[in-house]
Each structure stands twice: as structure tokens, then as C-alpha cells.
Amino acid sequence: MRPHVTETEKARATARYVRVAPNKARQVVAHIRGLEIEEARRILLFSPKDVAGQILKTLNSAVANAEHNTDPPFEADELVVTSAVVDEGPMLKRFQPRAMGRAYRVRKRTSHITVAVGIPRVIAPRRRRRPSGEIRQVAATPVATEQTQE
Asked: What DSSP state is assigned to residue 79?
């Protein structure tokens, strides 16, 4: 179960023009949002999807950016994946020959993968306040009934 956290972005990395459909990459990226770095690496390493390797490279790059390009530098074991987004890139348009002189369009999609890492900041859950004038309902106690035995 993932903790309820709000994170502040510390470092990010972007892989652009990755030759994979955005929907396929979004399926993998959804698994690592909000996770610690080691857990996210483990999930990506053993994922059967081919795009997981590219996302893992992007995640490692974001962690390296957090370790080397921020002041003060962060340790990898204290970071979490704050956001992971897959946007559409340009489409390569090709044509597939079909019967009777026709041609079908083939759209080879590309993606821009952005992974951001940061430090988690745990917030306390808020208590629900009753609106003024609302009376708290008390559960009624069951009335004891006599059972007659014959």
C-alpha cells in the first residue's frame, strides 16, 4: 500500500522521441508513480514490456541528476518517483499497400517520457468536520424480547 504523500520535485529527466506508442508506455509508468527508487527499479527490471528498459534508463538519469545537479545533493535511497508522465511525440506516417491499388496509413507513434524524483513529505489525514447544526446519530439499542418456551 502506498503512503499518502505529496512530493516536491527535485530533479527530472526526459527521454524524447522514444519509438513506442504512448499508451503502451503509460501502462508501465503507472506502476512506478509514488514508489521509492529501489522498488521502482525492481518493478521495471522484471517487467515483461520492452519499454520498461527505456523508462528504467530515464529513471536512473533522473536519480543521477538529483545526486549531482542539486544543492544539497540527495541520496538515491531517500528519493521517490514524484511524477512520471508520457506525452505524445510526432508520428511517422507510412503506407501499407493493400489489394486493388489501395493503401492503408500506418502511424508509427513516438513518446516523450518524463520522470521526476523528489523527497516525500507526509501529510496527516484531515478530519471530517460536521456542518453546524448536524446532530450525531446514536445507534439504537435493540429491545430485549422475551422468548416463550413451550
From this structure: -
With H, G, I as helix, E, B as strand and everything else as coil, classify residue 83.
strand
Residues 6+ apart with CB under 8 A from 77: 36, 37, 38
What does the pLDDT look like over 68-84, one tens digit per residue? 988 888 888 889 999 99
Whole-number Å distance between alpha carbons of 61 and 114 = 11
Grid coordinates belonging to 59: 529513471
Residue 87 CB contacts under 8 Å (≥ 6 apart), including other chains: 22, 111, 112, 114
| SS3 state of residue 140 | coil
> For residue 63, which of 94, 84, 93, 89 has the smallest C-alpha distance?
84
Would you say 75 and 67 are in contact if contact means Cβ atoms under 8 Å apart?
yes
Average pLDDT, the chain: 86
Which H or E run contains 53?
A: helix 51-68
How far the first Cα of the chain sits from its last, in Å, is 56
Please, what CATH class does the domain formed by 5-122 belong to? alpha beta
SS3 120: strand
